[in-house]
Model the fold of this input.
Amino acid sequence: MNDVRRYIYGTLIIFLFIVLAWVGFVFYNSCGFSATCPDGALAVERTPIPTLIPATLPAPDRFVSAPVVADAPSIGTAGITRPSNPGGPGPGIELTGSVDAGKIVFDERCAVCHGSQGMGGLLNPGSTDGTMPALNPIDASLKDADYKTFAINLDLFLEHGSMPEGRNPIFQMPDWGDKGILTPQQIADLIAYIISLNP
Ligand code: HEC
Done:
């Protein structure tokens, strides 16, 4: 009877010893076989997307197409404010405009958005600047000492209209010329009037 008990206890103790030895070995092993446990240090998180291409890589000239640059409206030089809608000048710029006639059309058609005498200040929620542009004084880049150039800069907006920059502008500049809402003569008159406001 005693012998049986001894065998059972002996087996249990040996089994426990083996289990403890195995756990200890696994622990020591995962620590990097050192009492200071170097493998237990927190891993440094590296960003998965390299922000800089290592200098040793060749410059990516294959499979990477050149960025597409949108064509600016054909006329004029860079830096001049241009309407978002494409197109060239209309027939109005060949006509001689009348300031007085232009003022009448302006009060009727344009003042609702650009203010009386083009003073601006009306709101345009959803556009980047939040207001309708003033035409008096007008955007300096549209101005030009040469009457014809100044007229073309204005005519492009009047002919083709323009969508202001921004998420969701409530108002946009209508395309008076393209839609045939205004005659070339009326456009010439308006141009003369706006230029008279910006001597
Ligand atoms: C429904 C409102 C509205 C009406 C009406 C309107 N405009 Fe505009 N206009 C705008 C908006 C908005 C812009 C700005 C467009 C942009 O930023 O691309 C603009 C831009 C312009 C510009 C360019 C100025 C600049 O600084 O960008 C001119 C010139 C202009 N309008 C003239 C006129 C004339 C002349 C009339 C009348 C025939 C008129 N507009 C009627 C809303 C209007």
User: Anything to note?
Assistant: The mean pLDDT is 85. Helices lie at 2-30, 99-114, 147-160, 184-197.
